[in-house]
Amino acid sequence: MLLFILKRLFISIPVIFILATLTFCIMRVTPGGPFDKDKAIPPEIKANIEAKYHLDKPPFINTPAFHEKKWINILTETQYFYYMKGLARGDLGPSYKYLGRSVTDIIRDSLPVSVELGFYAALLAFLLGVPLGILAAYKHNTWIDNAAMFTAISGITLPSFLVAALLIYIFSIKMGWLPAGLWDGGWEYKVLPTIALGLRPVAIIARLMRTSMLDVIKADYVRTARAKGLNEVWVILKHVVKNSLIPVITISGPLIAGIITGSFVIEHVFAIPGIAKHFILAVTNRDYTLIMGVTLVYAVLLIIANILVDVFYALVDPRIKLS
Amino acid sequence: MNEVTQKKSNSRSSSPASSLWQDAWKRLFKNKAAVISLFYIIGIILVAIFADVLAPFSYEVQSPENRLAFPNTTYWMGTDILGRDLFSRVIYGTRMSMSVGIIIAFCSLIVGTIYGSLSGYAGGQLDNILMRVVDILYTFPSLLLIILIRVIFGPGLFGIFLALTIVEWVSVSRIVRGQILQVKEMAYVEAARAVGVKHQIIIARHILPNILGPIIVTLTFEIPAAILSESFLSFIGLGLQPPFSSWGSLANDGFQAFKSYPYLIFFPGMAIFLTVLAFNLLGDGLRDALDPKLKNT
Question: ipTM surpassing 0.95, yes or no?
Answer without folding.
Answer: no
